[in-house]
């Protein structure tokens, strides 16, 4: 593997709340254009890991490199520049409630990147079109369905031209009938070569796109490997046991 | 009876220009309270410990000291002293009206800061997180994401603050501001008809409350976020 192929490197990330360790020694590297999937039981530390990667939660220990450059989280300017290159999608969308869809996508282009209004508007419209919401540009979050909100939040992240996209259970807050539209967008991104790390319970969907699964439990990455290795028929990984239970609970063994 | 009506009729223009004084006093105090209340609230929510402490002391002091006492302190104390400084002479600081706007405004800032603080804290934490994740500095996140939402949520509390300020504005007569109450007393002392004049004063205050509350309701409607129920 060529070193310049590596876009993100995470080494020894740890975080404790009080004296309760919730993330311990998370280490991995990610190649350009791949999808890495975080699975595991709720409370296992997936959200904490994702938010430690972009320092929304400051890790107690550990280092992060993006595109070969180590991040210095103490420098506000550097941290802002880094966060612009790492998009984040939240489980409950976190759209800015007082801004319509277009303004949500445009705001950081104006206020962070300092783009001119016309150019920012054009870019924002292009991203909305990419997620199939060009016609909803002037609707406010409260007027959108959950699936539409999540697609706007993806457009908002993409508008910043991120090198990596972090997705924290992007479909978990959605009604079942709305999950498909978001998964379709994510699949398009994967096929377009966008580098992503995604926590999800959508196992069969992500197995077809991911190059690696990380299984997290009690704050540790306890297993990792390709979907084929971990989920293969005659494999007896923890990941497989967990995923089997998930699909049993969901009542769709075929999923 | 006709004498009373005549007295009221003759006093009406004088009383109504007093209403104007109250109105300017309240709007001035609301604005001073807004300009100061917003940074106080932001300091209390996002500031480091010393900043939060200073805000707490400010709020505590201005809520704790009666307006009447503050008016005396400002008019006979602080402003009288400041106006004796030669190079401040041009500013005519020894004005009862200025003292009243300052006292009502500074007190209102203490109350308004608590309205804004409550509104900021009621916003979902994810709003700030999402702003940071996009690379926004905290200052940008506060001014472009948090405050526009928090100020909208504050309008009902603001309306309440307006009617409290309105009643407090009547205290300005104690340092000689010729507002409605001061005029009521002045006219009553010459006509010896305090009751009808007091009723008139009450009606004027009520009308001012009504206009202000309606105006704020209209503002609330105007800036309401589409699709939101509150
Ligand atoms: N701010 C916090 N304070 C204290 N404990 C927290 C906080 N955030 C998360 N935790 C705890 O950290 C653990 C891991 O949580 P999380 O990363 O959200 O797991 P997951 O996303 O895999 O469900 C959980 O036990 C959770 O209760
Ligand atoms: Mg989670």
Major β-sheet profile of chain B: none
Average pLDDT number of chain A: 92
How do the SSEs of chain B run, as a string of H and E?
A: HHHHHHHH
- Strand arrangement within the widest β-sheet of chain A reads 6-7-8-3-9-10
Mean pLDDT of chain B: 89
- Taking all Cα atoms into account, the compactness measure Rg of chain B is 21 Å
Fourth CATH level, the homologous superfamily of chain A: P-loop containing nucleotide triphosphate hydrolases
Radius of gyration of chain A: 18 Å
- The CATH class of chain A turns out to be Alpha Beta
| Count of helix runs of chain B | 8
Question: What is the CATH-assigned architecture of the domain at 21-178 in chain B?
Answer: Orthogonal Bundle
Structure summarized in a few sentences:
Chain A contains 9 helices and 10 strands.
Provide an overview of this structure.
The complex is a heterodimer of chains A (255) and B (230). Chain A is 37% helix and 24% strand. Chain A has 255 residues and is of the alpha/beta class. In chain A, the strands form 2 sheets. Chain A has a 6-stranded mixed β-sheet with strand order 6-7-8-3-9-10, with helices on both faces. A 4-stranded antiparallel β-sheet of chain A has the order 2-1-4-5, with helices on one face. In chain A, α3 packs across α4 and α4 packs across α5. Chain A is globular, with a radius of gyration of 18 Å. The two termini of chain A are 32 Å apart. Chain B has 230 residues and is mainly α. Chain B has a domain of 158 residues: MetI-like fold, CATH 1.10.3720. The longest helix of chain B is centred in the first third of the chain and has 45 residues. At the A-B interface, α2, β6, α3 and α5 of A face α5 and α6 of B. The site of adenosine-5'-diphosphate has 9 residues of chain A, from α1. The site of adenosine-5'-diphosphate (ADP) has 9 residues of chain A, from α1.
């Amino acid at each position: 593997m060529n070193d310049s192929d590596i876009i993100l490197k995470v080494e020894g990330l740890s975080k404790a709340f009080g004296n309760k360790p919730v993330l311990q020694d998370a280490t991995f590297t990610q190649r350009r254009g791949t999808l890495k999937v975080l699975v595991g039981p709720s409370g296992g530390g997936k959200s904490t890991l994702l938010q430690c990667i972009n320092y929304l939660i400051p890790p107690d220990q550990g280092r992060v490199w993006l595109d070969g450059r180590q991040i210095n989280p103490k420098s506000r300017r550097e941290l802002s520049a880094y966060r612009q290159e790492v998009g984040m999608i939240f489980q409950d969308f976190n759209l800015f409630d007082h801004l319509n869809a277009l303004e949500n996508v445009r705001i950081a282009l104006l206020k962070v990147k300092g783009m001119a209004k016309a150019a920012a508007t054009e870019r924002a419209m292009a991203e909305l079109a990419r997620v199939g919401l060009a016609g909803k540009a002037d609707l406010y979050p409260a007027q959108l369905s959950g699936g539409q909100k999540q697609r706007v939040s993806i457009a908002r992240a993409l508008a910043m031209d991120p090198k990596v996209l972090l997705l924290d259970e992007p479909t978990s807050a959605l009604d079942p009938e709305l999950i498909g539209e978001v998964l379709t967008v994510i699949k398009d991104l994967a096929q377009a070569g966008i580098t992503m790390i995604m926590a999800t319970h959508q196992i069969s969907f992500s197995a077809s796109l991911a190059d690696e699964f990380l299984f997290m439990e009690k704050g540790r990455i306890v297993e990792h490997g390709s979907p084929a290795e971990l989920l293969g028929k005659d494999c007896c990984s923890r990941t497989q046991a967990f995923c089997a239970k998930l699909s049993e609970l969901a009542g769709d063994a075929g999923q | 009876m006709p004498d009373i009506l005549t007295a009221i009729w003759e006093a009406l223009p004088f009383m109504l220009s007093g209403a104007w004084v109250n109105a300017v006093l309240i709007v001035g105090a609301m604005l001073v309270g807004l300009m100061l209340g917003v940074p106080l609230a932001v300091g209390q929510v996002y500031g480091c410990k010393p900043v939060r402490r200073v805000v707490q002391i400010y709020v505590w002091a201005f809520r704790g000291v009666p307006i009447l006492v503050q008016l005396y302190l400002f008019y006979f104390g602080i402003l009288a002293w400041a106006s004796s400084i030669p190079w401040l002479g041009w500013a005519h600081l020894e004005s009862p009206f200025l003292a009243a706007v300052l006292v009502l405004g500074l007190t209102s800032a203490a109350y308004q800061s608590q309205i804004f603080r409550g509104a900021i804290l009621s916003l979902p934490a994810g709003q700030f997180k999402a702003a940071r994740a996009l690379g926004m500095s905290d200052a940008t996140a506060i001014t472009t994401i948090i405050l526009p939402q928090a100020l909208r949520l504050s309008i009902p509390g603001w309306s309440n603050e307006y009617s409290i300020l309105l009643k407090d504005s009547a205290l300005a007569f104690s340092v000689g501001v010729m507002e409605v109450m001061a005029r009521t007393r002045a006219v009553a002392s010459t006509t010896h008809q305090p009751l009808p004049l007091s009723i008139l004063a009450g009606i004027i205050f009520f009308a001012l409350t009504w206009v202000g509350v309606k105006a704020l309701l209209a503002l609330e409607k105007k800036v309401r976020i589409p699709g939101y129920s509150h």
